[in-house]
Amino acid sequence: MATRWGICSAGKISHDFTVALRTLAPENHKIVAVAARDLKHAEEFAKKHNIPRVYGSYDELAKDPDIDVVYIGTIHPYHLATGKLFMKSKKNVLIEKPLAMNLREVQELISAAQDNSVFLMEAIWTRFFPVTVELRRLLEQGEVGDVQMVRADLGAPLTHIPRLAERKLGGGALLDLGIYCLQFIFTVFNGERPESIQATGHCIDTGVDGTAVLVLKFSGNRLAICTCSITMMLTCDAVITGTKGTIKIPDHMWCPTSLEVNGKEMQFPLPEASMPLNFTNSTGLRYEAEEVRQCLLKGLKESPGMPWAHSSLIAEVLDEARRQLGVTYEQDNIQ
């Protein structure tokens, strides 16, 4: 039986997610409804993607009895409210990254999932790419020995995009881009908590972080460096240095299609899209969707590949980095 998806929000990332779902077998994944706060936008989205049911509010989607899981593609200040809405209606949810604005909100979402006995996953799609699957295998096999250093960079000039630059929209390099670097680091170090976090950088005139550099120190003098920016183009690669060599994600580290192990390159091409996409390599969103299906079939409430503990740890590190940089959101002031 197909996993029945509802799409919450008719924006750019929801378009790409819907296109990616269509690269999977239709007997396994079926989109049954879309909701937007503007009914016209939802109707246009449904027509473009041939989705049978359309709603002009998220409440209506939450009440639809024929949905197994809702993909939440809203901007992150709305993740907490929309996530709780659907989970209280006993809907499983896949929520775009970052899961929420801070650790307090992440914990609130996890509590809602537990209280309502539903599945919850942060949509860090990178975790489920074939490159990441191979990376985990190589690390488990000790291909590069004991890991000593991890470096991950991601940045581009993006301050012209309101949701990335405006504080009220959850803007800033850390929440949108730095999360990819941190999730990579915690993939390598298997969710281990760092002993120390040092952050530096600068803010743009809207008060959000334009560029941030984080140095994380782990037990045994292992280090990780995360650099993210919405003001400049960075290399967008990642390197793992071990006692026996290196593993490199040469580019597009957030949606990778290749991997270099001690200089030897492996390619992992993505399927073609059926229509134009808004973001790079977006057909790779198919892998997180299939992960959700497999978890639901097994009766799991969280994904082993992106567990709640990792979402909490990432949020905790982001909170501390923002504290050191002096970046606050209105959600931080709620007691």
Automatic annotation (TrEMBL):
Domain Gfo/Idh/MocA-like oxidoreductase N-terminal: 4-121
EC top class, as a word: oxidoreductase
UniProt keyword annotations, A-Z: Oxidoreductase
UniProt xrefs under InterPro entries: Gfo/Idh/MocA-like_OxRdtase_N (IPR000683), Gfo/Idh/MocA_domain (IPR050984), GFO_IDH_MocA-like_dom (IPR055170), NAD(P)-bd_dom_sf (IPR036291)
The EC number(s) this enzyme carries: 1.1.1.179, 1.3.1.20
Catalytic activity annotation: (1R,2R)-1,2-dihydrobenzene-1,2-diol + NADP(+) = catechol + NADPH + H(+); D-xylose + NADP(+) = D-xylono-1,5-lactone + NADPH + H(+)
Gene Ontology MF annotations: D-xylose 1-dehydrogenase (NADP+) activity; nucleotide binding; trans-1,2-dihydrobenzene-1,2-diol dehydrogenase activity
GFO/IDH/MocA-like oxidoreductase domain residues: 134-247
The family this protein is said to belong to: Belongs to the Gfo/Idh/MocA family.
The name this protein goes by in its record: Trans-1,2-dihydrobenzene-1,2-diol dehydrogenase
